[in-house]
Model the fold of this input.
Amino acid sequence: METLDLTWFNSQEKIEEKYDRFYRSDVEKLGITFIYINTDNEICITRKQQVKLNKSILNRRELVNIIRDNRKLNGVNHSLYALLKFNFISSAESILNDDLMGDHFDVISNVQDIIFQKTIKELESVNHLYIVLKPKSRMFTKRVKITHKKRNTRRRKL
Done:
């Protein structure tokens, strides 16, 4: 039996190895930015942190724990105002063709598992999750006092 010559295949593999970082792969690390807004709707402080993802998914439990750990700032409790996801999903071909427009930004309406699509390995650091937090406002509900009015009725004398 004849042996197969793999030199061509091995040389092609070495050439392709240089370009592996430009192929799409799962997102392993994710940057999270916490944006704290004051009562006047102005950004007062931002915080950043890195999180490792499992199969490009940030599960709900991890997300809730991250929000819970970072909701207090200077002794003031903050509540979740918005979740914004930036996932850069363009391919290497579209970048070479200057076609960078796409739907990379999503507003997440409820706390759930966040799935990031495959992205170019070299641009993985661009993928980001923005968590906007607002101070908890006290509910000032007007208290209604119920008073019983005494009805004074006059009787006419006939």
